[in-house]
């Protein structure tokens, strides 16, 4: 199953004023649609660290990621992903609770 590709909401794309920038944003969002959750925030977080790149707010409009998520990706990269296990996508205990924990057991 393929994740839906985010449609950029930046000023350039909304006004269709620069085809080269529009293509760059479309390709960025295409790549993001193929990455998992941590990979998306690391990619955009690393992109945000490069000189002359858009601000976190602009990247949020381009990619659809929340600004806090972009900052988190940048922070995780800053620690060289030290606190994250390489074999897990989510931290232990993350995700939905199991179905039997959702409903209280009656005696």
In the predicted model, the low-confidence regions spanning at least 5 consecutive residues are none
Q: In sequence order, what are the helices and strands, one letter per element? A: HHHHHH
**Helix percent band:** 40-55%
Shape assignment: globular
Count up the helices.
6
Say how many strands there are.
0
Give me the Rg, rounded: 17 Å
Distance between the first and last residues' Cα: 41 Å
Classify the beta-strand content into a percent band: under 5%
Structural class: mainly alpha
Mean pLDDT: 85
The major sheet is characterized as: none
How are the SSEs ordered, and which strands pair?
Layout: H1 11-15, H2 19-34, H3 37-48, H4 56-63, H5 67-78, H6 99-102
Helix pairs in contact: 3-5
Notes on the structure:
The protein is mostly helical and 107 residues long. It has a domain at 11-82. It is 53% helix and 0% strand. The protein is built from six helices and no strands. It has helices spanning 11-15, 19-34, 37-48, 56-63, 67-78, 99-102. The radius of gyration is 17 Å and the shape is globular.
Observed structural traits:
107 residues, 53% helix, 6 helices, mainly alpha
Give a concise summary.
This protein is 53% helix and 0% strand.
